[in-house]
Design a protein that fits this description.
By secondary structure, this protein is α+β, with helices and mostly antiparallel strands. It has helices spanning 3-9, 23-33, 52-69, 83-101, 107-116, 138-154, 169-176, 209-212; strands at 45-51, 123-130, 158-162, 182-191. 43% of the residues lie in helices and 14% in strands.
């Protein structure tokens, strides 16, 4: 599969089959993603991969924390977002809701608990950044994330970047037994998508360039 095909057809899946992904395939995905650009080739990302029964055990821990603390999905902005961005978010939620409802699920519960259950994916990749790096190095993490989801798609796997877990970073660091100096940037659910679930028919649209690009010549 060529890179442009992967870019045009990749989508985020929100229901996965309970089938293991070969470790060698995950290694290949991560090796591909390691080619992502980074400042001075520092490759600042630090990766933890959680598989199988350990992934399920972690999800139980996160869902317990969710019931206690109730932090949910949302923009997480320090101040109100411009209406342009909120309109896109509302449109996404509106389009997803009937698909989730058709599965007998409530939208908010499915998205929140689904995120912390990694939508049933058998593999989760956690990307950390050492606190010694400035926030600008999150750009490098973003490049790595993009390469991971494209490499997974090219190998016939589904993926879903999940940000809610960053609100439960303490529980995740405790589970992984890693230092508080490691900042959790993002998690990526990886697995074979369950194509029988209607939510996996969902595909977002993109804003026209006229809304996002300013030309200066």
């Amino acid at each position: 599969m060529d890179v442009l095909t992967a870019m045009k057809n990749r989508t985020s899946f929100r229901s996965f089959l309970d089938e293991p992904v070969p470790v060698d395939m995950i290694k290949n995905i991560l090796e591909d993603a390691s080619r992502a650009p980074s400042a001075l080739n520092m490759q600042p990302w630090e990766i933890n991969v959680v598989l199988g029964s350990e992934r399920k055990r972690l999800s139980k821990k996160l869902l317990k924390a969710f019931k206690e603390r109730g932090i949910t999905c949302g923009p997480g902005a320090a101040r109100p977002l411009p209406e342009t961005f909120m309109l896109r978010a509302r449109k996404c939620a509106e389009d997803m809701t009937p698909l989730i409802n058709s599965m007998g699920q409530d939208f908010k519960k499915y998205v929140n608990e689904g995120s912390l259950g990694f939508y049933g994916a058998p593999c989760v990749i956690f990307v950390f950044l050492d606190e010694s790096f400035p926030c600008e190095r999150m750009v490098d993490v973003g490049s790595f994330l993009g390469f991971v989801v494209l490499a997974a798609f090219a190998r016939g796997l589904g993926s879903c970047p999940i940000g809610l877990v960053t609100s439960y970073a303490d529980e995740i660091r405790d589970f992984l037994n890693i230092s508080d100096s490691k900042k959790l940037a993002i998690s990526i659910a990886i697995g074979k998508p369950d194509l029988s679930k209607s939510i996996n028919n969902f595909k977002t649209i993109r804003a026209p360039l006229s809304e996002t690009v300013r030309w200066v010549d």
